[in-house]
Amino acid sequence: MSVISAPPLSDPFQSYDPGQYFCELLRDRAGDGGAGAIVRGRIAAIGLDALRARAAAAENDLINLGITFTIYSESAAIDRILPFDCIPRILTAGEWDEIERGVKQRVKALNLFLHDIYHDRHITNDGVVPADLVYSNANYRPEMEHFPVRFGTYVHICGTDIVRDEAGKFLVLEDNARTPSGVSYVIENRHLMSRAFPDLLAGMKLRPVDDYGRRLLGAMIDIAPEGVDDPQVVLLSPGIYNSAYFEHVFLAREMGVPLVEGADLTVEKDRVYMRTTSGLRAVHTIYRRISDEFLDPTVFKPDSMLGVPGLIGAWRKGNVTLANAVGTGVADDKAIYAYMPRIIKYYLGEEAILANVQTNICREKEGLDYTLANINNLVLKPVGESGGYGITIGPRASKEEIDVARASLLADPSNWISQPVISLSVAPTLTDEGIQPRHLDLRPFAVTGKDTWVLPGGLSRVAMKKGSLVVNSSQGGGSKDTWVLVDDGPSTQAQSMGGMTQSQTFGGEQKQ
Amino acid sequence: MSRSPALLARYAEGLFWMARYLERIENLARLVDVTQTFESPGHEAESWLAMVRINADEEGFAKSGLALTADNVKRFYLLDRDNSTSIPASLELARTNARTLRPLISTEMWMQMNVFHRDMLALTEDDLQGDQLSRVCSRIKEGVQAHTGITEGTFFRDQGWDFYQLGRLIERADQTTRLLDIRYHLLVPGGSEERKAVELTQWGGVLRAAAGYHAFRRVAPAGFTPTDVVSFLLHDGSFPRSVAVCVQQMEWHLSNLRSRYGLRGTVAALERVEELRAGLIGRPVESILNDGLHLFLDGVQRDLILLAAEIGTAFFRDWRPLAAA
User: Fold this and answer.
1) Does A64 touch chain B if contact means CB atoms closer than 8 Å?
2) Taking CB atoms and an 8 Å limit, are A239 and B262 in contact across chains?
3) Per-residue pLDDT of chain B (325 residues; tens, 9 = 90+)
4) Whole-model pTM?
5) Do the Cβ atoms of A276 and B163 come within 8 Å?
């Protein structure tokens, strides 16, 4: 046993085969500067075992840092981390430009739509969107009618779920215009990446992500009631038992504002105050992470313990601003989603930069008939749900599951839409079986005060289970660091370094 | 430009209680350690019963349905999460407070708390056996001391720091009185020279548990008596765990809240501290001992509860007096 030989070289990507799907790392794209190949080379140089050890250490850091969300079962609350996959997802400057313009266009249209339906109702009067779909919608809030919001901005924070088909075309899956979450992971993933995998990042010229808190605070100050000099901004959270509490903490810290719970606030004479050690202090902008119906027990759910009695009254008096505005849920409803291309055209006179997934509206006879006839090939979604619940994926469903879905559909057709199964793009992901393709989506975050700013990249959510198309964190999804390359891609230094490890900076200056 | 941001009442409350629970954990570990060293062969249960009495836990222990044995008392304080006065229960409460304080405390404080919490949850019966127990006590003390050090080095010094310190100092003063109370429960003064020597050894144990043995030796007369030990733990002006130093620092933090942050709600609490100080410093130890040390310590503990109540009523969002017990 004295033969000395190097271990056989094994390429961790040896068994990686994206098949017919678009690979977000290795597919050659104009302007990528070979970044994907460089990352691949570096991962090969690290080797599968070391990669696993470092990934496990990185996840352990997340637990110790308490970067967790909470899942509630009947008996216990369990802190879970969002599984982190260390192999990044790369977007070129050109791809990002398209997404950024598309997201801004959508946010603009959503705000114009909301302003219109809560004021003059042109779009329904003109028959572009069916009136009952809007005004009978459970998320339509009559309280908002003829209520002015600053700069016409209702959706201050928007998360747009985007997928990519086999041809590499970006498609919008849904808009999240209420209280979208996940942005904290975008920033924490980058921090984690630079702590645990500086050798993967070395020399890469990427758009930074750590500007989010400053931009968000800027928008919150923009939208404060007119005439307030130095507005007090707070973040309103349901508290430590909420599954997104970590994110609330993260955002409050990044903005440098107090994280308050409902009981910390009080309304006197239509003004909102927070309870401090030195008495009541006025509050001017509330970034609320509580749903509409829990905000104010005197207006919505009377038994809500999370909200603030009188808050809506203070808001209507113009003494405080809420972000997002009340009543935005009508715009990101899956039923309205189907009309978004027409809504964009109606208000902006433009084609949608980011296309929708083709959507069949089951409340319409045509859509229902088509869905019933093709149910085995379609994805059936309830319109009111979020978090990936209640979805039936025809080609993956058992006969019994199809029967159940068909019965639910027939019982209440207007509660359902259907879409073709999109062959979601994949990215190489570290799994128990080595590096394997896993499906993923992208949720960019747009912040709007006076203007709209989009955080470069967004949250790439990965379905960690083989073949799964469901990326939601509540259903076992994980996430990846999302890299947006600056115009000229990675530096030449990085290109010539493929496979080597080297510290990222020299005397504080990045090597060119 | 810099402005002094307001402090949410809920945050002040959370800081006060987080510090109290952690101080309580450290002192419980000290008590377990000293009780273990006082165990006299054949009378183990008696020593551990004293610990239950000192913590006023007779009722809670009876409710647990456990037989009064040394092992059961150790379990009750080190493993039993259902016992609200146990170390794991106190740590759970400290961490829940830390969670509500996450927007305020440093990341390093939060991270250490999580690591400490994971470490304590992993304790098992095996860790309570034989020489393991003393090591576990050291680990617990070190966990709290790491928290204290990280807090000292990273936590922003605005009014939150004063509320944090007030919680810690009130708990520390309370715990020092409980440690002293061991004498009443366990140490029987005797007449013979031999008895006196044993007694002094035991007082040495009390001092060690309070981490005050060496400091005491530096300031105590060569032929010291138990009265000198009591005087040291109650009155010494330099020992960080003496009741007098704790009270003096409470007064300083309350004054700071009033003068630097303009919190007028401190008036009642300051009066309470002055009374506490007068009752403590104003009396020679001999007179305290003559009237009964236990009675005196009981009085100090009651005054500390009233002080906490004044602070809670003045500043906290949701003061629950029962939580002070």
Assistant:
1) yes
2) no
3) 445 688 999 999 999 999 999 999 999 999 898 888 777 677 788 888 888 988 889 999 999 888 989 999 999 999 999 999 999 999 999 999 999 999 999 999 999 999 999 899 999 999 998 889 999 999 999 999 999 999 999 999 999 999 999 999 999 999 999 888 876 555 555 567 777 777 787 788 889 889 999 999 999 988 888 889 999 999 999 999 999 999 999 999 999 999 999 998 899 999 999 999 998 888 888 888 888 888 999 999 999 999 999 999 999 965 443 333 3
4) 0.89
5) no
Sequence spans of domains, chain B: 7-155, 157-325
Three-class DSSP labels, chain B: CCCCCCCEHHHHHHHHHHHHHHHHHHHHHHHHHHHHHHCCCCCHHHHHHHHHHHCCCHHHHHHCCCCCCHHHHHHHHHCCCCCCCCHHHHHHHHHHHHHHCCCCCCHHHHHHHHHHHHHHHCCCHHHHCCCHHHHHHHHHHHHHHHHHHHHHHHCCCCHHHHHHHHHHHHHHHHHHHHHHHHHHHCCCCCCCHHHHHHHHHHHHHHHHHCCCHHHHHHHCCCCCCHHHHHHHHHHCCCCCCCHHHHHHHHHHHHHHHHHHHCCCCHHHHHHHHHHHHHHHHCCCHHHHHHHCHHHHHHHHHHHHHHHHHHHHHHHCCCCCHHHHC
- Could you give the domains of chain A? 358-421 (3.30.1490.270)
Instruction: Give B289 to chain A, closest Cα distance, Å.
Output: 40
Mutation pick from B16, B18, B99 vs chain A, by most beta carbons of A within 10 Å, is B99
**Chain B residues inside the 8 Å CB shell of A66:** 99, 102, 110-111, 114
Contact criterion met (CB < 8 Å) for A252 and B163: no
> Are the Cβ atoms of B265 and A277 closer than 8 angstroms?
yes
Identify residues of B whose CB sits under 8 angstroms from chain A CBs: 5-12, 96, 99-100, 102-103, 107, 110-111, 114-115, 118, 159, 163, 257, 261-263, 265, 315, 317-318
